[in-house]
Predict the structure.
Amino acid sequence: MKKSVFDLDHQNASVESRIVASLERVSQAFRVLLWNESKEFSLSPIQIQLLIFLLHHSDEKRKVSYLADEFNMTKATISDTVKTLVQKQLISKEYEPHDTRSYIIHLTDKGKDVAEKTSLFAKQIQVPIDKLHETDKENLLLSLLEIIHHLNKAGIITIQRMCFTCHFYKSNENVQAHFCSLMNTKLADTELRIDCTEHQQK
Protein backbone atom coordinates (compact mmCIF):
# COMPACT_ATOMS: atom_id res chain seq x y z
CA MET A 1 0.00 0.00 0.00
CA LYS A 2 1.32 3.44 -0.92
CA LYS A 3 2.06 5.87 1.88
CA SER A 4 -0.22 8.87 2.31
CA VAL A 5 1.24 12.25 1.37
CA PHE A 6 -0.02 13.38 4.80
CA ASP A 7 2.15 10.81 6.62
CA LEU A 8 4.80 13.20 7.95
CA ASP A 9 7.70 10.74 7.88
CA HIS A 10 6.94 9.92 4.26
CA GLN A 11 6.13 13.53 3.38
CA ASN A 12 9.41 14.88 4.75
CA ALA A 13 11.36 12.32 2.76
CA SER A 14 9.52 12.99 -0.51
CA VAL A 15 9.60 16.18 -2.58
CA GLU A 16 6.55 14.99 -4.53
CA SER A 17 4.52 14.52 -1.34
CA ARG A 18 5.50 17.94 -0.06
CA ILE A 19 4.33 19.48 -3.34
CA VAL A 20 0.94 17.74 -3.03
CA ALA A 21 0.66 18.82 0.61
CA SER A 22 1.55 22.38 -0.41
CA LEU A 23 -1.19 22.39 -3.06
CA GLU A 24 -3.64 21.22 -0.39
CA ARG A 25 -2.62 24.18 1.79
CA VAL A 26 -3.20 26.56 -1.13
CA SER A 27 -6.64 25.02 -1.75
CA GLN A 28 -7.35 25.58 1.95
CA ALA A 29 -6.43 29.26 1.51
CA PHE A 30 -8.90 29.55 -1.39
CA ARG A 31 -11.64 28.04 0.79
CA VAL A 32 -10.89 30.45 3.66
CA LEU A 33 -10.82 33.51 1.38
CA LEU A 34 -14.04 32.46 -0.36
CA TRP A 35 -15.74 31.77 2.96
CA ASN A 36 -14.72 35.18 4.32
CA GLU A 37 -16.19 36.79 1.21
CA SER A 38 -19.39 34.77 1.52
CA LYS A 39 -19.90 35.92 5.14
CA GLU A 40 -19.42 39.57 4.16
CA PHE A 41 -22.05 39.40 1.42
CA SER A 42 -24.38 36.88 3.16
CA LEU A 43 -23.94 34.39 0.31
CA SER A 44 -22.70 30.80 0.22
CA PRO A 45 -19.35 30.03 -1.45
CA ILE A 46 -21.08 28.34 -4.42
CA GLN A 47 -23.38 31.36 -4.87
CA ILE A 48 -20.32 33.62 -5.09
CA GLN A 49 -18.54 31.26 -7.49
CA LEU A 50 -21.63 31.19 -9.69
CA LEU A 51 -21.88 35.00 -9.79
CA ILE A 52 -18.19 35.32 -10.70
CA PHE A 53 -18.57 32.71 -13.44
CA LEU A 54 -21.61 34.51 -14.91
CA LEU A 55 -19.67 37.79 -14.89
CA HIS A 56 -16.93 36.44 -17.14
CA HIS A 57 -18.59 33.88 -19.43
CA SER A 58 -20.86 33.94 -22.47
CA ASP A 59 -24.58 33.14 -22.79
CA GLU A 60 -24.15 29.52 -23.93
CA LYS A 61 -22.29 28.79 -20.69
CA ARG A 62 -24.95 30.43 -18.50
CA LYS A 63 -27.35 27.50 -18.45
CA VAL A 64 -28.09 25.11 -15.59
CA SER A 65 -26.80 22.01 -17.40
CA TYR A 66 -23.49 23.68 -18.30
CA LEU A 67 -23.06 25.12 -14.80
CA ALA A 68 -23.70 21.69 -13.26
CA ASP A 69 -20.84 20.25 -15.31
CA GLU A 70 -18.62 23.27 -14.66
CA PHE A 71 -18.93 22.98 -10.88
CA ASN A 72 -19.26 19.16 -10.69
CA MET A 73 -22.70 19.44 -9.10
CA THR A 74 -26.15 18.09 -9.85
CA LYS A 75 -28.62 20.13 -11.89
CA ALA A 76 -30.91 20.16 -8.84
CA THR A 77 -28.21 21.79 -6.69
CA ILE A 78 -27.48 24.44 -9.33
CA SER A 79 -31.22 25.06 -9.81
CA ASP A 80 -31.62 25.63 -6.06
CA THR A 81 -28.66 28.05 -6.11
CA VAL A 82 -30.18 29.91 -9.08
CA LYS A 83 -33.55 30.09 -7.31
CA THR A 84 -31.92 31.67 -4.24
CA LEU A 85 -29.94 34.18 -6.31
CA VAL A 86 -33.13 35.18 -8.18
CA GLN A 87 -34.84 35.77 -4.81
CA LYS A 88 -31.90 37.93 -3.76
CA GLN A 89 -32.34 39.88 -7.04
CA LEU A 90 -28.76 39.13 -8.12
CA ILE A 91 -29.67 37.25 -11.30
CA SER A 92 -32.57 36.96 -13.75
CA LYS A 93 -33.72 34.25 -16.16
CA GLU A 94 -34.22 34.69 -19.89
CA TYR A 95 -36.36 31.81 -21.17
CA GLU A 96 -35.58 30.53 -24.65
CA PRO A 97 -38.47 30.93 -27.14
CA HIS A 98 -38.11 27.41 -28.58
CA ASP A 99 -37.93 25.69 -25.17
CA THR A 100 -39.62 27.28 -22.14
CA ARG A 101 -37.88 24.79 -19.79
CA SER A 102 -34.49 26.15 -20.80
CA TYR A 103 -33.19 29.57 -19.82
CA ILE A 104 -30.09 31.73 -19.90
CA ILE A 105 -29.01 33.29 -16.61
CA HIS A 106 -28.09 36.98 -16.52
CA LEU A 107 -26.65 39.11 -13.75
CA THR A 108 -28.78 42.02 -12.60
CA ASP A 109 -27.04 45.35 -11.99
CA LYS A 110 -26.92 44.47 -8.29
CA GLY A 111 -25.55 41.01 -9.13
CA LYS A 112 -22.87 42.44 -11.38
CA ASP A 113 -21.76 44.80 -8.61
CA VAL A 114 -21.48 41.92 -6.12
CA ALA A 115 -19.71 39.70 -8.66
CA GLU A 116 -17.13 42.39 -9.45
CA LYS A 117 -16.39 42.96 -5.76
CA THR A 118 -16.20 39.28 -4.81
CA SER A 119 -14.13 38.31 -7.87
CA LEU A 120 -11.12 39.88 -6.13
CA PHE A 121 -11.24 37.33 -3.28
CA ALA A 122 -8.02 35.58 -4.44
CA LYS A 123 -5.86 38.71 -4.65
CA GLN A 124 -3.72 37.73 -1.63
CA ILE A 125 -2.72 34.51 -3.41
CA GLN A 126 -1.45 36.54 -6.36
CA VAL A 127 0.84 38.70 -4.18
CA PRO A 128 3.67 36.13 -3.81
CA ILE A 129 3.20 34.96 -7.41
CA ASP A 130 3.75 38.51 -8.66
CA LYS A 131 7.13 38.48 -6.90
CA LEU A 132 8.40 35.32 -8.63
CA HIS A 133 11.08 35.48 -11.32
CA GLU A 134 9.59 35.28 -14.83
CA THR A 135 11.14 31.85 -15.43
CA ASP A 136 9.65 30.55 -12.17
CA LYS A 137 6.22 31.88 -13.18
CA GLU A 138 6.49 30.12 -16.53
CA ASN A 139 7.53 26.81 -14.92
CA LEU A 140 4.78 27.09 -12.32
CA LEU A 141 2.13 27.75 -14.98
CA LEU A 142 3.24 24.77 -17.10
CA SER A 143 3.31 22.47 -14.08
CA LEU A 144 -0.16 23.51 -12.96
CA LEU A 145 -1.56 23.11 -16.49
CA GLU A 146 -0.16 19.56 -16.61
CA ILE A 147 -1.70 18.73 -13.22
CA ILE A 148 -5.10 20.13 -14.25
CA HIS A 149 -4.94 18.29 -17.58
CA HIS A 150 -4.21 15.00 -15.80
CA LEU A 151 -7.09 15.54 -13.34
CA ASN A 152 -9.39 16.29 -16.27
CA LYS A 153 -8.35 13.13 -18.15
CA ALA A 154 -8.81 11.10 -14.96
CA GLY A 155 -12.41 12.38 -14.73
CA ILE A 156 -11.86 14.11 -11.38
CA ILE A 157 -12.64 17.57 -12.74
CA THR A 158 -14.89 17.95 -15.75
CA ILE A 159 -15.06 20.91 -18.14
CA GLN A 160 -11.69 22.46 -18.92
CA ARG A 161 -11.42 25.21 -21.54
CA MET A 162 -7.62 25.04 -21.59
CA CYS A 163 -5.26 24.81 -24.55
CA PHE A 164 -4.33 21.18 -23.86
CA THR A 165 -7.95 20.00 -24.34
CA CYS A 166 -8.71 22.20 -27.37
CA HIS A 167 -9.32 21.07 -30.94
CA PHE A 168 -7.16 23.95 -32.20
CA TYR A 169 -4.13 23.11 -30.03
CA LYS A 170 -1.13 21.28 -31.48
CA SER A 171 2.20 20.40 -29.88
CA ASN A 172 5.34 18.45 -30.64
CA GLU A 173 6.08 15.06 -29.09
CA ASN A 174 7.63 16.48 -25.92
CA VAL A 175 4.94 19.18 -25.53
CA GLN A 176 7.70 21.77 -25.71
CA ALA A 177 6.38 23.64 -28.75
CA HIS A 178 2.79 24.88 -28.82
CA PHE A 179 0.66 25.95 -31.79
CA CYS A 180 -2.89 27.35 -32.13
CA SER A 181 -4.42 26.50 -35.50
CA LEU A 182 -7.30 28.94 -34.92
CA MET A 183 -4.92 31.89 -34.67
CA ASN A 184 -2.38 30.14 -36.92
CA THR A 185 0.45 31.07 -34.60
CA LYS A 186 2.99 29.56 -32.24
CA LEU A 187 2.30 30.03 -28.55
CA ALA A 188 4.90 30.77 -25.91
CA ASP A 189 4.58 28.81 -22.66
CA THR A 190 3.29 31.98 -20.99
CA GLU A 191 0.54 32.33 -23.63
CA LEU A 192 -1.08 28.98 -22.84
CA ARG A 193 -4.59 29.56 -21.53
CA ILE A 194 -6.46 27.99 -18.67
CA ASP A 195 -9.83 29.35 -19.85
CA CYS A 196 -10.23 30.37 -23.49
CA THR A 197 -13.38 31.91 -24.99
CA GLU A 198 -12.62 30.23 -28.35
CA HIS A 199 -12.10 26.75 -26.85
CA GLN A 200 -13.50 23.78 -28.74
CA GLN A 201 -13.27 20.39 -27.05
CA LYS A 202 -11.12 17.79 -28.82
